[in-house]
Amino acid sequence: xxxxxxxxxxxxxxxxxxxxxxxxxxxxxxxxxxxxxxxxxxxxxxxxxxxxxxxxxxxxxxxxxxxxxxxxxxxxxxxxxxxxxxxxxxxxxxxxxxxxxxxxxxxxxxxxx
Length: 113
What we know:
The protein has 5 helices and no strands. It has 113 residues and is mainly α. It has one domain (3-111). The longest helix has 32 residues, at 42-73. The N and C termini lie far apart (51 Å). The mean pLDDT is 81.
């Protein structure tokens, strides 16, 4: 394996791992959604929204690393590696958003749009 590919892999890992360390916070739309929810379910709605965001982050990181890693192993150049990493991140984000919560959270979020 060339030095370039090793350095590229290390840079991708450092770049992708940074969002995983960041604290998950709700945006203004999600905070408004929590405020609109029923008084007894606000904590559950907040918890479920945070879990969904964590699932999105995890899926994005895993997808980007998997796509870029596959491209590096397959012998792709820099452009192909970045393209595969981006496609993997997008797919991982969508998959993580859907699988970040359980059935209970899905029911709570459906009741409180």
